[in-house]
Amino acid sequence: GMPAPPPPVLSPRRKTRQIKVGKVGVGSDHQVSVQSMTTTKTTDINGTLQQIAELTAAGCDIVRVACPATEDAEALPAIAQKSQIPVIADIHFQPKYVYKAIEAGCAAVRVNPGNIRKFDDQVKQISKEAADAGVSIRIGVNAGSLDKRLMEKYGKATPEALVESAVWEASLFEEHGFNDFKISVKHNDPVIMVRAYELLAERGDWPLHLGVTEAGPAFQGTIKSATAFGTLLSQGIGDTIRVSLSAPPVEEIKVGNQILESLNLRPRKLEIVSCPSCGRAQVDVYSLADKVTAGLEGLEVPLRVAVMGCVVNGPGEAREADLGVASGNGKGQIFVKGEVIKTVPESAIVETLIEEAMRIADESGLA
Ligand code: SF4
């Protein structure tokens, strides 16, 4: 039969130039990628590679490692070589680490314009060495380390100040014929951040890396990032994303992927459609939804599972899903593709849903 049409998106992607971060293309011709940053000491090569492996398994496309000192730079070759996903060296101040990262086989280097001023005169050489090695660059403007001159001009890190910094820095690389870079203009306030990216998107065709800096602990950071990224991605702005959480980096990847799935920018995988519960509920919906979610964690097939607390909206939603339960009277009606396949006692709902999900996944041939 005909392949299913792609699911709708809110807006076409903004056209950008294309760059490569190792094997991952970044730009409007490629799907929006998800990145995170390791929290291990970069000098701890095994620990860092272990964390990169966990991130890769969680669906991370690109990983960044901090490179604050010589010992970190010395660990880069082993990390870049053994990582399954492209490695970006995060460098704030020192050009010598930029050269070391390029030599180490890193896919890309992140530089911070607030500090690059100190090595303005080296942009030419950085451009040449990066171009020769096929290494791309991220110009990472950050509200917390904005150039002094711009802080004096604007008084604080306004969207205009962030964008002026980015555009100036981009021009330094472009003057030397180097175009393989993406830009970020991060701020901890989603409103300022969104405005900065909107302004930046009007100024050039650079691929953009989205991020809300210091977004906070998991709950707040997730909301801030989802709100800000959602606003931008819904306009087609953003080519790679990094959710920053004061939580393990694997959580950042889960949140990032969930944001993209929610906007149909990635195929949806497991989706639990559970009701909020209300006075009509005849079952503990929270615990039921939690148990089903936990039981199906890691399932890599597209599957909508409806968990409904009563028979009012229950059967309707359960029917729309691939699989579902509508509870009532101490029992659960189990639906598969709209048909009630069985009714089980409440105590057997979770295991039955998990069993059925596994069966559907097996039959789909994707599991
Ligand atoms: Fe309430 Fe039933 Fe709707 Fe759940 S499905 S919110 S229990 S009416």
UniProtKB/TrEMBL annotation:
Domain of life: Bacteria
Domain IspG TIM-barrel residues, every copy: 16-256
Class of enzymatic activity (EC top level): oxidoreductase
Binding sites annotated in the UniProt record for [4Fe-4S] cluster: C275, C278, C310, E317
Cited SUPFAM superfamilies: Dihydropteroate synthetase-like, Nitrite and sulphite reductase 4Fe-4S domain-like
Keywords for this protein: 4Fe-4S, Iron, Iron-sulfur, Isoprene biosynthesis, Metal-binding, Oxidoreductase
A single BP term in Gene Ontology: terpenoid biosynthetic process
Residues of the IspG C-terminal domain: 271-357
UniProt GO MF annotations: 4 iron, 4 sulfur cluster binding; 4-hydroxy-3-methylbut-2-en-1-yl diphosphate synthase activity (ferredoxin); 4-hydroxy-3-methylbut-2-enyl-diphosphate synthase activity (flavodoxin); iron ion binding
Signal peptide start and end residues: none
Reaction it catalyzes: (2E)-4-hydroxy-3-methylbut-2-enyl diphosphate + oxidized [flavodoxin] + H2O + 2 H(+) = 2-C-methyl-D-erythritol 2,4-cyclic diphosphate + reduced [flavodoxin]
Family, similarity comment: Belongs to the IspG family.
Record's function text: Converts 2C-methyl-D-erythritol 2,4-cyclodiphosphate (ME-2,4cPP) into 1-hydroxy-2-methyl-2-(E)-butenyl 4-diphosphate.
Protein name in the entry: 4-hydroxy-3-methylbut-2-en-1-yl diphosphate synthase (flavodoxin)
Native source organism of the sequence: Brevibacterium yomogidense
